[in-house]
Amino acid sequence: MLKQKKIDFEVNLTKMKWCPKHVSEIPKVISRAFERDITMGMIQPIIGTDHVKQWVLKEDKDIPEFFNAPNMMQEWIAEKLIKVRIPDGIIPKDFQPKKVKILATGQKIAKFFGEDPVSSRVVECTLKLFDCRHFYLKQTLPGSGASPHWMIFEGRWAPTERGLRLTFLIRYSWQLNRKPPMDFSVEATREDSVTSLAWEGETEKQLNGNIPAIVGTEDFYWAELVQEGSVSMAHLRWNEDDEESTTSCPGATPTPDLPTPEELTAKRSEQSRRSASRPDDCNAPSRAPAEAKTPVTFAVHPGLKKPEARPSDSTQMAGSQRFKAEGGGVLLIEDTESPWPLYIGLGIFVLMSSFVFFSYANQ
Predict the structure, then answer these.
(1) Which residues 6+ apart lie within 8 Å of 235 measured at CB?
(2) What are the backbone angles phi and psi of residue 108, rounded to the nearest 5°?
């Protein structure tokens, strides 16, 4: 169960690069985030803070006093944010980060997964779509030990001609076994936090596009999300870059597809039918059966004699043997090596052995 004492709503002015001019703008930001009509009385008191000092924002003049006050923390971590309490009935009573959604109330209709480099890290991203037109986007930083860090975005999705349009409404971070326990907060997103994802190809199994970045200096990063169950987890991407990388070299001739067993059977049947319907020709050379003409099949032709003429282009020499390609196969014609060199070598060996034997015997 959630161990936080309370759940606050934050408007991080530093991250949003925005500062309200009127106090009445603050409930409008919260109304957009939760898609509810929020009034000033529902979120009192409105607190401005820099994580060290607090200011109560009651009137418009209190906003510049808070926003322009010197930061009490180091510059690289200094922030100015507005905190309010979340009205009752907005956050589910059984809410648990990562397990229960805040905005989504419908059934899940699709889930996408991706793993992409962001700055110097690799971020795992999961996108879930619900039939109530809300989405749930979770980003995880792998390698963070037994207590991984999650950043979760929720908002609305809408179909487009080429893919999906995502409108981000809220975000919140979560980490298991956080010590010491801290107050859990839901953050507002910028009003222009909208992005589009496009389908890869015609199958609608992969979405590509920019989504908010949780590491690095850029606001967005390029993500490739594959629908769960559409491909094996060992290979998540099949973009045009991958297809180009598999090409051998420029100008290379693509390797033709091998015929299937059904195609081979049909081809053999057609050849047999033509052979049966063709009249006999006494002058035609004998041919091997059609069944022996399949690719990568090597058969010895027993009835061929040694040709007197020079081998044709279809006949090739390989060592001491002659091969001839016929009907997609290779026929061994004959061994052309003469036995005389063997006989001569044997005779020389016998003479030398006899000479050595008689020389030894006369000593």
Answers:
(1) none
(2) -70, 130
Contact 212, 193 (CB under 8 A): yes
Q: Which domains does the chain have, with CATH numbers?
A: 7-85 (no CATH), 108-232 (2.40.128), 312-343 (no CATH)
**Is the pLDDT assigned to residue 19 strictly greater than 50?**
yes
Burial letters for 238-261: b for 16+ Cβ neighbours within 10 Å, e otherwise?
beeeeeeeeeeeeeeeeeeeeeee
Cα angle, residue 100 at apex, residues 99 and 103 outer, rounded to 5°: 140
Q: Would you say 12 and 24 are in contact if contact means Cβ atoms under 8 Å apart? A: no
Residue 235's pLDDT band (cuts 50, 70, 90):
very low
Helix, coil or strand: residue 281: coil
Question: Which position has the higher pLDDT, 249 or 328?
Answer: 328
Tell me the pLDDT tens digit for each residue of 206-219.
999 999 998 888 88
Bond before 250 cis per omega within 30 degrees:
no
- CA gap 136, 97 in Å, rounded: 11
Q: What is the distance between the alpha carbons of residues 334 and 304, in angstroms, rounded to a whole number?
A: 8
Higher pLDDT, 287 or 189: 189
Give burial (CB, 10 Å; 0-12/13-18/19+) of 197. Answer: buried
Say which amino acid occupies 278: R
d(CA 276, CA 272) in angstroms, rounded, equals 6
Distance, in Å, from the CA atom of 108 to the CA atom of 279, rounded to the nearest integer, reads 69
Residue 31 CB neighbours (<10 A): 14
Question: Is residue 350 helix, strand or coil?
Answer: helix
Closest CA to 227 of 256, 206, 255, 213: 206
Q: What local confidence, expressed as pLDDT, does residue 216 receive?
A: 81
